[in-house]
Amino acid sequence: MKKQLARITALSTALCALTLSTSISFAADDSSISPLSDGQDFDIALYNSKITDVTGKSAYLWAYTEGEGRDLTKVRVESRFYVNGSLVDSDTANGTSYASVDYNASAKQLMDVEIRSIHYAYNKIGDAEKRSSNAVWPK
């Protein structure tokens, strides 16, 4: 009986060790496990400033920033809105991967509108990527 118990214990131990080593092997091959990052896997994927829905008295101005990468921690967009040559408003938005701002411009007679934007993407150590965009009406 003692010999049988010893064999069962030895076989159980061997099976546990084999199962554990197989699990570790599969985990090491898993593509979702990656080495430590240097913090540089982040970028601005998409960004733009737009003017739409223009009439004789109004226009819709908007801008967005979209970031990507495993080290991305925040995106930001800062915009200034101009109507008939004068700065009328500014706005800033932050997000984890997407941020946008908008403004409904209006005037008695709309001669021109413009939006100027700066787009940012930040990583976890505070580095930033920066881009700018603008849109003008009439073109």
What does this structure look like?
With 139 residues, the protein is an alpha+beta fold. It is 20% helix and 53% strand. It contains one helix and seven strands. The chain has a four-stranded antiparallel beta sheet, with no helix packed on it. A three-stranded antiparallel beta sheet has the order 1-2-5, with no helix packed on it. A hairpin with a 2-residue loop joins strand 3 (72-83) and strand 4. The protein is rod-shaped, with a radius of gyration of 28 Å. The N and C termini lie far apart (94 Å).
Summarize the structure.
The protein has 139 residues and is of the alpha+beta class. Helix content is 20%, strand content 53%.
Properties at a glance:
single chain, about 140 residues, alpha+beta, four-stranded antiparallel sheet
